[in-house]
Amino acid sequence: MKLLKQINLMDDQKTIKRLNLAAIPALIFFYVFFTFLTVAGHGATNEPPFFIGLLILMGTYIVLIIIHELIHGAFFKLFDPKGKVKFGFKNGVAYATSPHSFYSKGKFAIILLAPFIGISGGLFLFYFFGWLTVSLFTWIASVHAASCVGDFYFLYLIAKAPANSCVEDTEVGLNIYHEE
């Protein structure tokens, strides 16, 4: 296998800043997107007072970060049961990693997208069954989705790689290899 690209996101302050800036338009995009999902009007009708809602948003966000990384970890184990999964927080970034594990592009795409899809779907169900108000749903779902910019960035990088490439997860990012 030939190494095509090596991405060290954890030590690349410039890329981390760019991803943090990219989260702003992503937040706007996802707020509009999730607002359109609420057109059916199934959410709870009693909006909490502003500061209570803000506390709910912040508390839920912290819990969702943990769940998000646990989902990554579960899919790492699903696709490489012998691989070790590590969790951490560095440079303002929470992460799950399975160092030295290799995955096909398709499996790595699933690992990257599983938290976004699972958490967004779960939040929508909470809204649909009336357990979240419209504003709490749209803000919580939007903030979480905007926080997935690192996953979307990695997805973009592996999508650009040749079809028969494989991805190695590393403690600081990922390596993309081309099978010759």
TrEMBL record:
<dbReference type="InterPro" id="IPR021683">
    <property type="entry name" value="DUF3267"/>
</dbReference>
<feature type="transmembrane region" description="Helical">
    <location>
        <begin position="136"/>
        <end position="158"/>
    </location>
</feature>
<protein>
    <submittedName>
        <fullName>Transcriptional regulator</fullName>
    </submittedName>
</protein>
<feature type="transmembrane region" description="Helical">
    <location>
        <begin position="50"/>
        <end position="76"/>
    </location>
</feature>
<feature type="transmembrane region" description="Helical">
    <location>
        <begin position="21"/>
        <end position="44"/>
    </location>
</feature>
<keyword id="KW-0812">Transmembrane</keyword>
<feature type="transmembrane region" description="Helical">
    <location>
        <begin position="108"/>
        <end position="130"/>
    </location>
</feature>
<dbReference type="Pfam" id="PF11667">
    <property type="entry name" value="DUF3267"/>
</dbReference>
<keyword id="KW-0472">Membrane</keyword>
<keyword id="KW-1133">Transmembrane helix</keyword>
